Structures are given as structure tokens and as C-alpha cells.
# Entry
Amino acid sequence: MYVNEWAPVVGIGTIAVSAGAAIVLRGPIGKALAQWIGGWSHNESKWIEAKMQASGGGSSAEVEQLRSEVDELRGQVAEVHERLDFAERMLAKSREPERLPPAR
# Structure
């Protein structure tokens, strides 16, 4: 087959896929995708608070409790990370093998 015979097929296929994607992304799937991508730029705690308020649940006390739990878990993760770094440094440290004293 010649390249000239494939060019219209590729062109029409590209246009069809683009039109289909535009139609699908204008509907609820596109809105959900936009919210998901929009959530990337938000601070985690603010995003959680906004989601809870949007769903009609979650008081300020609940949000504060969840924030404190998240902060506590972050502290624990940081501590475990420090311990892991220490253990890796200890294992990587080159130790001289114990040698017998020279013979007399």
C-alpha cells in the first residue's frame, strides 16, 4: 500500500477521535475529571474540608480531629524515615575487618 492511501484514513480517524473526546469530556466525565485535576493544586487539608462541606457532612470539630490525626501520622512517618536513614548509613558505613595482631 502507498502512503497516499493511508493519509485520508489517518486524518479522518484523528478527527473522529478528537470529536468523540470533545463530546465525552463536555459531559459529567469531563466535570469529574476537572474536579480531580483541580484537587491537585489544593492543600490536602483544605481539599478534605471542602469535600466534606460539599457533601453536607463533617463539622469543624471533625475536621480538626482529622487534621490532628494527619499531623500525628506525618510525624510518625518522619520519625520512621529518620530511623531508616540512620540504619542505611550504619549498613553502608565501611568497617575495617578486625585483624589479628601481627605475629611476634
Observations:
- The mean pLDDT is 81.
- The chain has two domains: 1-41, 43-92.
- Residues 1-41 form one domain.
- DSSP finds four helices and no strands in the chain.
